Amino acid sequence: MHLITLKDWSNAGVMEVVENSIAIKKHPGQYADAMNGRSLALLFQKTSTRTRCAGEVGMAQLGGHGMYLDWQTTNFTLADLGDEIRVLSTYADIILARFLKHADVVRAAECATIPVINGCCDRYHPTQALGDLMTIQEKLGRLEGVKLTYVGVHNNVCNSLIAAGLNVGMEVTAVTPEINPAAVDEPLFEDARKAGCFAVSNQLQASIAKSDVVYTDTWIDMEFFLDSGFKAEKERRIQLFMPYQLNRELLDGHDVLIMHCLAAHRGYEISDDIMDDPRSIVFEQAENRLHSMKALMLKILETNNE
Ligand code: CP
Question: Is the pTM of this model over 0.90?
């Protein structure tokens, strides 16, 4: 069993991970030996704080071992991806892969003889969505019928929220002036739309007014800060997305949970004061990546051993 996208998972499977995430958070000691002798290969082509730490620390807290592998210090750049994945499958029990391209995650899953978890690609970010579902379930006590407005750029995170929404009956409205080309997934949008779990809107205020959760993600890429060659694109995005910033003026008077998958760029997609607002649950959301990753790894290995 892999987790490439939540589109492939049943409602029962997702809800089991959500419920177990909450149980693991409450009683971590009960799971301290659950992964004795097991190894997680964390195969990262891109940087990460939350996903890496959730996998590596999560595996250690379950009594197993995490092995971080990047593109600089392994031979993944030199060799055929499939060959290296086959070899990795003989050392580890699970692969958590963060690749640039979705096609590479699919190829890794095809070549692996152990479960592969998609740790974020250009199309989906399913482990983020599982942590988000856990957080919403904790806060609201339900997922079905929850109304979530996603604001900003339609990207991998937005896609995984839509897939998660379709799975659990959560209604996602995207107020997104632009979509990343890699994130276009018409079959997902169509299925979710038909189920009443996805809509696109340009009415930001109206959408927030009927929402339980308001969610955003960065639209300023790291290269924009590091490389002056991206100055024009950075300016274009600021012009386009600034009207969609989560700030006090937009959110005043709204009883909503405020979520952000992080890393955030304060002052761009979210203002300083809204990041630290009492309605903001972004840091609990980030912590829950750890608990939900533990529940996911346990589920994936249990299913694999059946
Ligand atoms: N939200 C998220 O995936 O964070 P990282 O990129 O730090 O893993």
Answer: yes
